[in-house]
Design goal:
The protein is mostly helical and about 450 residues long. It has helices at about 5-10, 40-50, 65-70, 80-90, 105, 155-160, 170-180, 185-195, 200-210, 220-225, 235-245, 280-290, 295-305, 315, 350-355, 375-385, 395-410, 420, 430-435; strands spanning about 265, 325. It is built from 19 helices and two strands. Strands 1-2 form a two-stranded antiparallel sheet. α4 (about 80-90) packs across α9 (about 200-210). The protein is globular and about 70 Å long.
């Protein structure tokens, strides 16, 4: 194939695969200095200054018209004052009840804007039930959180501040009171929105800042634009598998109008099925939601109870959504481990092993999840391709994460099941005939 034709094919190809949750720096080498294991907030802001240098214009990788017409809601168009206010709020630990947690605690600029924990830690060392997804590129999603319970960044930004196990303020008035003694806030709110501080404007400002966290300049993008040397031979083989044998296009399509590599839908891929009784949890959730099913009630259920494992169901109450979680982006997946909504998959090799065996069987498993029959070499190639989605501003972190994941995978592959992956055993056999087989 001629090079120009190949470049055109790469630009227009629909990619997809692996309803994955985040990417992979296992043991962050960056200093902490903050609470709950996060880098100190002033140090994070210094790191941010190195990463984001032009926050006002449409970011590379996003169509300027789409950026202004689709990704910026009317009434909260970005301005320098709104971004400055949102940035101050994002790193302000006073927005937590005990003064120890900010947005930057769980979405740490030194850790790919996540926290590299299985589940996040809030005030009083409380642990939630979900892994913190990165805030990088969150502005491009159609819904927020793993279960889509918020439809906009503005709505999402307000919920953690009032959740008892995250930032813990009892109500909006308490959160505003915590920052009311800072005269800088009165001036910033006035400049940003032309009025006194309000909780809605607080959410709008944080969302304005988060819209500056767009990271879409990766080796994959150079390869798709025609640079045949931008990705390694292994990653290029992984590209072919991604579009073919690995059956990836179902969930993670990427093109110019969809740069994240997600279908923005919700799928049961069997992660929760390893340990949950979905039927019992669903009945429990329906009973609990009779007392109130607003977004605040769902937010608490998602982070404080076993019913979290029901995923999208607690938002829609649709049985088809039991155990279904949002297809996460592929961007910067190499530096935002661990993976899946519960952080249960530590490496991208774990992710590939999970999909290669056809997930975990359960009555609500998506029909597209089935064994892939990938060899070890093919798994390695797909992983190499996934690491090509990391923005070049994180090249050093990406290389470190790759080596750490390789080392861990060489020692431990807890989700690998070659019998299922290569169809020597069918997923329903043990359930039908028992573990001892036919007599």
């Amino acid at each position: 194939m001629k090079r120009n034709a190949g470049a055109a094919l790469r630009r227009t190809a629909l990619l997809g695969c692996l309803a994955i949750a985040g990417g992979a720096l296992i043991a962050a080498a960056s200093p902490t200095g903050g609470q709950h294991g996060a880098m100190a907030m002033d140090a994070q802001q210094q790191r941010l200054d190195q990463l984001v240098t032009n926050a006002a214009s449409a970011p590379p990788g996003v169509d300027p018209v789409a950026w202004s017409k689709i990704y910026q809601p009317p009434g909260n168009e970005p301005t320098a004052d709104r971004i400055a206010l949102g940035r101050k709020l994002y790193f302000d630990t006073r927005l937590s009840k005990d003064g120890t947690v900010s947005c930057g605690t769980c979405h740490d600029a030194s850790r790919g804007f996540t926290d590299h924990r299985n589940v996040s830690e809030g005030i009083g060392d409380h642990l939630g039930r979900r892994s913190a997804p990165t805030t990088m590129n969150a502005a491009l999603f159609q819904s927020m959180f793993w279960d889509g319970r918020a439809s906009t960044l503005e709505e999402q930004a307000k919920l953690p501040i009032l959740n008892p196990v995250e930032m813990g303020h009892p109500d909006a008035a308490s959160a505003l009171a915590a920052i009311s003694g800072d005269p800088a806030y009165r001036d910033l709110f006035q400049k940003a929105y032309g009025r006194a501080p309000s909780y809605d404007d607080l959410g709008r400002a944080i969302a304005s800042f988060e819209r500056t966290l767009i990271f879409l300049e990766a080796p994959f993008d150079r390869f798709a634009a025609g640079d045949a040397k931008a990705m390694s031979p292994a990653a290029q083989r992984g590209f072919a598998l991604f579009n073919g044998k690995a059956r990836c296009v179902s969930c993670h399509m990427i093109n110019a109008s969809n740069p994240l590599g997600t279908d923005n839908l919700f799928h049961n891929i069997g992660v929760s099925a390893r340990k949950q009784n979905f039927e019992a949890l669903a009945q429990q959730a329906l009973a609990a939601l009779q007392g109130g099913s607003g977004v605040d009630a769902v937010d608490k259920m998602a982070l404080q109870t076993d019913m979290s494992e029901l995923g999208r169901f607690i938002v829609t109450k649709n049985r088809g959504d039991i155990g279904a979680f949002k297809t996460e982006q592929l961007r910067n997946i190499g530096i935002t481990a661990p993976y899946m909504h519960d952080g249960s998959l530590r490496t991208l090799w774990d992710v590939m092993d999970h999909y290669n065996k056809g997930g975990e069987t359960n009555p609500y498993l998506d029909g597209g999840i089935e064994p892939l029959n990938l060899s070890e070499d093919e798994i390695n190639d797909v992983v190499a391709f996934l690491f090509s989605f990391t923005d070049t501003r994180f090249a050093r972190e990406n290389e470190t994460a790759l080596h750490e994941q390789q080392a861990h995978a060489a020692r431990q592959r807890p989700f690998r099941d070659n019998a299922l992956a290569h169809r020597r055993v069918l997923p329903f056999e043990t359930r039908v005939i028992g573990s001892t087989g036919l007599k």
